[in-house]
Write a structure and sequence with these properties.
Oligomer: single chain
Distance between the termini: 49 Å
Structural class: alpha+beta
CATH superfamily of the largest domain: Chloramphenicol acetyltransferase-like domain
Helix content: 25-40%
Strand order of the largest sheet: 14-21-20-19-17-18
Number of helices: 10
Shape: globular
CATH topology of the largest domain: Chloramphenicol Acetyltransferase
Largest sheet: 6 strands, mixed
Number of domains: 3
Number of strands: 21
Radius of gyration: 24 Å
CATH architecture of the largest domain: 2-Layer Sandwich
């Protein structure tokens, strides 16, 4: 029996999405769990999987069309069944897909579209279905975006990827090539206006709303990171490099276990009710080309540290490659934002709605500490909890930080 596939809702505030590429062509067979299409939301480019097996009988919207959530985008069925498209789409209760509007081009917006007009320098270049530009130039979406933003003509580059495909590293290498002095001087004197990317714009709107409407309060704790760093080094010395733990793995696991004891911090506010979530899904802030993207470690309190580490490694890689899945970015109940790699002592983060709290983590630093009356060199780390005063209070948040401290300073408990 034929089924109408609709534009999925990939976030609590998503109203529409842009279908940027059909992964499965018309009349192609798709299995349940295979990627059907790539859809760009306000947050990221998402790989949408088919919820059932069948044959893609009809694409109802063109690539690079903006479609409201719930509108029909495709029909799935068997290879030989007769399908009345008009009747089927009418029964879906959604607007006709022909109303889908082409998305306007946005400077600085990365897309994975197979047929998208992409400006590069003074002229626009049409991208072919296999990622080629006119005259046979192949380039990854990230490479195209970076070249577009920096005014670099991709036709002047040689790609190091498969079949000569231009990669991000090729563009970066070209950009670091010294320019003649007069060109450098002219570039330094220029004033540039850059259009906000879609992701940067939505980050700005959501963070402004959060800061203005949520009564934030902040608590900072200085933790002894020495035991954690020692345990991590010991574990990693016994593991292949591609499976080694990051510091963030331990920080996420510590937060998840601490949240078990304080459900008000693993909660959201719904009108006059506090919704205490049954799952502990930790959002992890990841820096991507267009801004900051929060990926999700689901049920982080339940999973062994090694499993959690492997899953985070995979989802972070997908986020940076621009091919996240819906489950990668939705459903977080608490967020950890770690900027320690940038050598920051501490910072405060804005709560990510509809969550009730976020933990900001600074760098691990060496400094003098007093141990048993003697001065020694210690490893310290500052963390700052931002919390919503409508949902929790200072005393409860401070107790949560105490439990968090106990896991960080006695990390062997993260392994059991």
């Amino acid at each position: 029996m034929a089924t109408v596939i609709k534009m999925p809702k990939l976030g609590f505030d998503m109203a529409e999405g842009r279908l940027i590429r059909w992964v499965k062509a018309q009349d192609e067979t798709v299995q349940k769990g295979e990627v059907l299409a790539e859809i760009e939301t306000d947050k990221a480019t998402v790989e949408v999987e088919s919820q059932e097996s069948g044959v893609v009988r009809r694409h109802l919207v063109a690539e690079n069309s903006v479609v409201p959530v719930g509108s029909p985008i495709a029909i799935l069925g068997t290879a030989d069944e007769a399908i009345d498209v008009e009747a089927l789409v009418g029964k879906s209760g959604a607007a006709r897909p022909a109303a889908a509007k082409p998305a306007p081009p946005q400077a600085g917006t990365e897309t994975q579209a197979a047929a998208t007009a992409v400006p590069a320098g003074p002229q626009a270049m049409q991208v072919e279905g296999d990622g080629r530009l006119p005259e046979g130039v192949r380039a990854t979406p990230v490479a195209r975006r970076l070249a577009r933003e920096r005014g670099l003509d991709l036709k002047s580059l040689s790609g190091s990827g498969p079949q000569g495909r231009i990669l991000k590293s090729d563009v970066e290498a070209a950009l670091t090539t010294p320019a003649p002095a007069f060109q450098a001087a002219a570039h330094a004197a220029a004033t540039e206006r850059v259009q906000l990317s879609k992701l940067r714009a939505i980050i700005g709107r959501r963070m402004t709303a959060s800061k203005q409407s949520l009564p934030h309060f902040y608590l900072t704790a200085d933790l002894d990171a020495g035991p954690l760093m020692a345990l991590r080094a010991d574990l990693n010395s016994r593991m292949p490099q591609d499976q080694q733990f990051s510091l963030n793995d331990f920080l996420v696991k510590s937060a998840a276990l601490a949240l078990r004891e304080f459900p008000n911090l693993n909660a959201s506010l719904d009108g006059e009710q506090i919704v205490r979530h049954g799952h502990i899904n930790i959002g992890v802030a990841v820096a991507v080309d267009q801004g900051l993207l929060t990926v999700v470690a689901s049920d982080a309190d339940q999973k062994p540290l090694r499993t959690l580490s492997a899953e985070l490694r995979q989802v972070v890689a997908r986020a940076r490659e621009g091919r996240v899945r819906p489950a990668d970015i939705e459903g977080s109940t608490f967020t950890v934002s770690n900027l320690g790699m940038f050598q920051l002592d501490q910072f405060t983060a804005i709560i990510n709605p509809p969550e009730a709290a976020i933990l900001a983590v600074g760098s691990v630093r060496q400094e003098p500490v007093v141990v048993d009356g003697q001065v020694a060199i210690g490893q310290r780390m500052r963390v700052t909890l931002s919390a919503d005063h409508r949902v929790t209070d200072g005393a409860e948040a401070a107790r949560w930080l105490q439990v968090y401290r106990s896991y960080v300073e006695h990390p062997v408990h993260l392994l059991v």
